Amino acid sequence: MSNNRRPATGSVRAVIFDFDGTLTPLTLDFSLLRARVEQIAREYVDQDIIDRQKDQYILEMIHAIEDEIDQSTASFRDRAFRELDRLEIEACRNKELYPYARAVLSYLKEHNIRAGIITRSSATVIRTVFPDLDQYIDATVTRDDTRYVKPDPHQLRMAVEALRVEHAAAVIVGDHPTDIAAGKALGAMTAGVLSGRCSRTDFVDAGADHVFDDIRGVIGLVSSGAVRAGGTQR
Ligand SMILES: [Mg+2]
């Protein structure tokens, strides 16, 4: 937008945010989403196939069940995703970004640090909650773009490549250990935020480089020239 952006002050060239619980309050009822997907799945597969997925996250469960269905139609997957979309859009009605989120994103922009979003949610949901997203965000990768969402590092790799920075110059910021797992697998810096449902201990156990109360902690990180924990400070 402007040609007179100040240069980045730290080694961080890009910040990739998770969405729910990180940029916006977490309003999803995961057990309701799972119950509805299981209800649809029962029309296609036996209960034991569903039971085998009990430790999987919902998206992975949908794909695993789809792989079990002996037919070439994608009707189970389409129905399951339509239902997820419907419930998620319902849950995000009247939802807003955290009140400080745009200020943090503006700071990054002013300092020529690229910003991305990776989410297990859909593009429709994030644009419903964040309609002016394009003013702040340079790359978005949702579940509409890839089956291999976090904790798989593929989704984060897509975002980092779209932002055209080195993996080590990117920091992933999220409210869940899956965000940290994706970052570590890719060799990016990682920061957990306590604005979702996870605790400091969860992030320490996940091996996060940094833990912040919320995304405002990112400003200190990018302005201090911080590198990965255990690395050197400039
Ligand atoms: Mg989240």
Summarize the structure.
The protein has 234 residues and is α/β, with parallel strands linked by helices. It contains ten helices and six strands, in the order E-H-H-H-H-H-E-H-E-H-E-H-E-H-E-H.
Please characterize this protein's 3D structure.
Helix 1 (30-41) runs antiparallel to helix 4 and helix 7 (153-163) packs across helix 8 (177-186). Strands 3-2-1-4-5-6 form a 6-stranded parallel beta sheet. The radius of gyration is 18 Å and the shape is globular. The protein is built from 10 helices and 6 strands. The two termini are 29 Å apart. Helix content is 42%, strand content 11%. It has 2 domains: 14-27 and 96-224, HAD superfamily/HAD-like (Rossmann fold), CATH 3.40.50.1000; 30-91. Mean pLDDT is 90; it is low at 1-9 and 228-234. The structure holds magnesium ion. Residues 18, 20-22, 174-176, 196 line the site of magnesium ion. The site of magnesium ion (MG) has 8 residues, from loops.
What are the defining features of this structure?
234 residues; alpha/beta; six-stranded parallel beta sheet; 10 helices; 11% strand; globular
CATH class of the largest domain: Alpha Beta
Strand order of the largest sheet: 3-2-1-4-5-6
Cofactors, ions, other ligands: magnesium ion
Question: Any low-confidence stretches, pLDDT <50, length ≥5?
Answer: 1-9, 228-234
SS element count, helices? 10
Q: So, CATH architecture of the largest domain?
A: 3-Layer(aba) Sandwich
> What amount of the residues lies in strands?
5-15%
Shape: globular
Structure classification:
alpha/beta
Helix content: 40-55%
Number of domains: 2
CATH superfamily of the largest domain: HAD superfamily/HAD-like
CATH topology of the largest domain: Rossmann fold
Q: Terminal Cα separation, in Å?
A: 29 Å
Radius of gyration: 18 Å
Main pleated-sheet profile: 6 strands, parallel
**Average pLDDT metric:** 90
H/E element sequence: EHHHHHEHEHEHEHEH
Work out the number of β strands.
6
